[in-house]
Amino acid sequence: MRSFVDPRVDFHVLTGYLGSGKTTVLRHYLDRTPADETAVIINEYGAVSLDHRFVMHAAPVVDVVAGGCLCCAPSGQLKDAVVRVLVQRVAKRLPGLRRIVLETSGLANPASIVATVLDDFVLKDYVRMASCVAAVDATDAIECARAQPDILAQIAAADRVVVTKLDLVAPGRAREIRDFVASVNPACDIVESPHGAAVAAVFDPVPPSRRGPVPGPAASHLDRAASHTLRIDEDIDWPAFSVWLTALLNRHGSRILRFKSLLRMAGDDTPTAIHGVRHRMYPPEHLPPGTPAPPGSELVFITDGLPGAEIEASLQRFLRYARAKAA
Amino acid sequence: MCEVCAVFGVGSHWAESARLSNLRFPARDIQRHRQERRRRFDLLRALVRPHGLDVRDWDGEAFCVEDAHGRSEVVPDLSHFWACAEKFSGAGLDPLDPAFADGAAP
């Protein structure tokens, strides 16, 4: 069998609240990786951009989209910026290009940016939505999250969270921040930065089955984001599951900050990873042959006020119904 | 449908995207995708019938939603299907509602 090499460029979204250290993480990353591998697009909320001055010497292409937040401006500016990078690649001016990193404005909701990349008929053939990385400020993220639910949405949407400014906090705080992040998003990878090798790997692939969800403390201090993990022992009936999930997202997508799952499907040898942010789902990823089959399927929902128990009951009800119908 | 390899039921929507497990002998995958698509339609039809709607597979490619007044609309995928079914029926089709599949005979 021919092996398939994906010719697309990896696209990474770097989020994090205002002042959470996104630019610092990016700068450290660019310092530690070959210079021609990464193109950077920076979105600044203000009309005048400063951030790019800090990274512009480190990357071959730094493009700035200023004067508004990309996630709310349906103006195609993000697409234009990505296309500008791709044009240079096609012209063979960027032979080493491996990835594009978009540093979002601190106010951005990653969901709509992910949707722009996944839905665009041109972009989706040239860039692969690779990961969403959130910078979380160890000094004040927990306190800020109470007032700024955007932080929770950013953590919830992340595949990987980079905890920043740990050198400024008391030793016990690192544990507290980890627990906080895990309680919002039990399925994400957590790394500490900006010191050491972790930063050079910050845009490395995030394995979908990296680890089981952490049964973190119930997110009692958070009213706006709660995670719920479901386990299903029997094989997933994909037609029934897709009907159910599309119906759920149609009604409640705006309250599902993140959905992540590893499904064991009827008729498949290897598990399939399926995940999404709000209404938008990523294309399913079939894990490579040889991946050990999990004992069952695992699904994580991070919701904004939607009770996890209701989702679970609803899915079980519907799978039962579909089984009865098929019998 | 991909017109080169004639794999029916494989679309760009996430619910229907699929990988061929064997590039040289795709017949098994094609059959499986078509069966899955048919099962999806069976489930949808049963769910919306109590609301006075019907849904047909439109050429292995799209969803054709119809109501008793003779209105019909062709939508590209499952996500659009739910919005259209709610528009035609005037009902909220909510899977969290315990009665979601109640009217649909198994």
How would you summarize the topology of this molecule?
The complex is a heterodimer of chains A (327) and B (106).
Chain A: E1 9-16, H1 22-32, E2 38-43, H2 51-55, E3 61-65, H3 77-90, E4 99-103, H4 110-119, H5 123-126, E5 127-137, H6 141-147, H7 149-157, E6 160-164, H8 172-184, E7 189-192, E8 226-232, H9 238-252, E9 256-263, E10 272-277, E11 280-281, E12 285-286, E13 297-303, H10 308-326
Parallel strand pairs in A: 1-4, 1-5, 2-3, 2-4, 5-6, 6-7
Antiparallel strand pairs in A: 8-13, 9-10, 9-13, 10-11, 10-12
Chain B: H1 27-48, E1 53-58, E2 62-67, E3 72-75, H2 78-89
Antiparallel strand pairs in B: 1-2, 2-3
Q: Could you characterize what this model shows?
A:
The complex is a heterodimer of chains A (327) and B (106). Chain A has 327 residues and is an alpha/beta fold. Chain A has ten helices and 13 strands. The relative contact order of chain A is 0.13. Chain B has 106 residues and is α+β, with helices and mostly antiparallel strands. Chain B has two helices and three strands; from the N terminus they run H-E-E-E-H. Chain B is elongated, with a radius of gyration of 15 Å. Chain B starts with 26 loop residues before the first helix and ends in a 17-residue tail after the last helix. The mean pLDDT of chain B is 83. Chain A binds chain B through residues 1-2, 238-240, 242-252, 267, 274, 276, 279, 281-284, 286, 306, 310-311, 313-314, 317-318, 321-322, 324-327, and chain B through 14-17, 19, 22-24, 32, 36-37, 39-40, 42-44, 46-47, 78-79, 81-83, 86, 92-96, 98, 100-101, 104, 106.
